[in-house]
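JOB MANIFEST
job_type = single_chain_structure
chain_count = 1
residues = 84
[input]
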Amino acid sequence: MITLVRPRINSFADLIEDRLTNMVVAYEVEWKSIRTPYVLENDKKLMDKRHIEDFLSVLEGELAIVHSLSADACYVDASSGKIC
C-alpha cells in the first residue's frame, strides 16, 4: 500500500498527490504537522525528493506497460514509435 504523509500546505505534496490520483492507484493520505512530505510503500520510507520522483516515474512506467498489454486497442509505443 502506498501512503503519502504530508503537511496541509505544501506544493510538492500536492504534486505527489496529483500524480498518484492521475495514475488511478490505491493510496492513502496521512496529514501530519511536518515540513516535508514523504511516501511509505509497504516497508520503505521515501523521504528524499529525488527518490520520491524516481519511485513515481517507475510506477507510471510500469502502469503504462500494464495498461498497454491489457487494452483492447492499438497503441503507439512512445520509445520506438511502433504501432501495436
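[summary]
The mean pLDDT is 91.
The first strand starts at residue 2 and ends at 6.
exit_status = 0
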